[in-house]
Design a protein that fits this description.
The protein has 301 residues and is of the alpha/beta class. The protein folds into two domains: 202 residues, 3-Layer(aba) Sandwich (Rossmann fold); 88 residues, Magnesium chelatase subunit I, C-Terminal domain (Helicase, Ruva Protein, domain 3, Orthogonal Bundle). The protein is built from 14 helices and nine strands. Strands 2-5-8-1-9 form a five-stranded parallel sheet. Helix 2 packs across helix 12, helix 12 crosses helix 13 and helix 13 runs antiparallel to helix 14. The model has no long low-confidence stretch (mean pLDDT 90).
């Protein structure tokens, strides 16, 4: 656990005052999930993605999503080589361990859909041939609020493939003063050293799968999910995939606390990040309000 704690500490020196969000991002990756970071421009979304990849020792590629992006720009393309009289495949940036889909909702739905198979099955099918992606493989997407001009909202089917959605928010006064006095964050990124290797992360992922979840804890998860399906307060209930995400993320959160068993407090800690992009209130209310109401409505067994 020392290596992952060192990584969290190193990232915390880049993204100031956001220890909880950093911990959630690490839990998401230990749980083998993809991460969506949504917030206004300029709060460090892209910087966090860079810092995560560098600190975990993972190969990194960044794709700037724009309105004219094509699926081939993400996946790659076959080019005819006249010397050998055949088509040769040139892999796109998706063939990396961490892929940053920067401002993913500024691309059209056709370009966004290029990520779907990769996120769900860790492979891509191009011109009838299936190609495996590296292990581990993560998509970290940043997204501007949908109210901003030039955005294309992600469909529910794609949102559901992100295990977690987090917001960074504005820094507090102390963190912002340190930010103003310190070095440029982009310069600090170039100084980051890997705190662990891909094999270490894969070992943590396997260890997280062995974290014990009691029947009582699973009762709690099922009660939360069932409430969303049978309450008039939500536009739609949580899917089985969302229930699995709650369990996997709770195991990872427990592992970060160096525990071999998950407790209801782990579920409560990760629930806002796991359900905020999956649940919609039937009435007005922010995603944070939706998660808070859910936790308040369902008692711990």
């Amino acid at each position: 656990m020392k290596k992952i704690n060192d990584a969290a500490s190193q990232i915390g020196h880049i993204i100031l005052g956001k220890d909880r969000q950093i911990r959630l991002a690490l839990a998401c990756m230990i749980a083998r999930g993809h991460l969506l970071i949504e917030d206004v421009p300029g709060v460090g979304k892209t910087t966090l993605a860079h810092a995560l990849a560098a600190s975990l020792g993972l190969a990194f590629q960044r794709i700037q999503f724009t309105s004219d992006l094509l699926p081939a720009d993400v996946l790659g393309v076959a080019v005819y080589n006249s010397d050998v009289s055949r088509f040769e495949f040139h892999p796109g940036p998706i063939f990396s361990q961490v892929v940053l889909a920067d401002e993913v909702n500024r691309a059209t739905p056709k370009a966004q859909s290029a990520l779907l198979e990769a996120m769900e099955e860790h492979q891509v099918t191009i011109e009838g041939e299936t190609r495996k992606l590296p292990e581990p493989f993560f998509v970290i997407a940043t997204q501007n609020p949908s109210r901003q001009i030039g955005t294309f909202p992600l469909p529910e089917s794609q949102l559901d493939r992100f295990l977690m959605r987090i917001e960074l928010g504005y820094p507090d006064a102390t963190a912002e003063r340190a930010l103003l006095r310190g070095e440029d964050r982009r310069d600090l990124l170039s100084q980051l050293k890997p705190c662990m290797q891909p094999a270490d992360l894969l070992a943590l992922q396997r260890e997280a799968q062995q974290v014990h979840t009691s029947d009582a804890l699973l009762d709690y998860v099922q009660a939360l999910v069932d409430h969303t399906r049978n309450s008039a307060g939500y536009a739609g209930g949580l899917s089985p995939r969302a229930a699995l995400a709650l369990v996997h993320a709770a195991r990872a959160w427990a592992l970060l606390d160096a525990r071999k068993h998950a407790v209801p407090e782990d579920v409560q800690a990760i629930l806002p990040g796991v359900v905020s992009h999956r649940l919609q209130s039937a009435t007005d209310g922010s995603s944070a309000d939706v998660a808070a109401r859910l936790l308040a409505a369902v008692a711990i067994p």
